[in-house]
Design brief:
The chain has 139 residues and is mainly α. The chain contains five helices and no strands.
């Protein structure tokens, strides 16, 4: 092809290609790449489900990396805190309970534990039951 000139078939191919691009963009959106934060933001419910099923952050990150999302576990955790609206360092996240527990169950369990500790009072050593024996001279 000569520079500055285009053949009719090439022009038709170019037009068809551009029309296909326009159609694809209308159907699928502009195709602007998402940031890693936006990806984590959209996947938050799925990541929370994975954590609930016992996945560690490292395992989740490995699964994301297999699918082209390059992120570390600490960055993912920080992004999730931002999505949740947690300010500053959130510290450890609470343990996920494997079964649903009512507040009444927790309250009665704590009360039972407290009463058991009260009943099992430590015995202080006393001299009341001490019997003294005189040293024997048998030797």
């Amino acid at each position: 092809m000569v520079r500055g000139k285009i053949s009719i078939t090439s022009l038709e191919d170019l037009r068809a290609g551009l029309e296909a691009d326009i159609k694809e963009r209308r159907e699928n959106g502009p195709g602007i790449p998402k940031t890693t934060f936006e990806i984590i933001q959209e996947l938050k419910p799925l990541i929370d489900d994975m954590r609930g099923d016992g996945w560690t952050d490292v395992e989740i990150v490995e699964a994301l990396k297999k699918r082209g999302v390059d992120i570390s576990a600490s960055t993912m955790s920080r992004y999730l805190q931002k999505v949740r609206g947690v300010k500053g360092k959130g510290g450890r996240r609470p343990k996920v309970q494997t079964r649903s527990v009512s507040t009444e169950e927790v309250s009665s369990s704590i009360k039972q534990e407290v009463s058991e500790k009260k009943e099992a009072k430590p015995v202080k050593p006393s001299m009341a039951n001490f019997e003294s024996k005189e040293p024997s001279m048998d030797a």
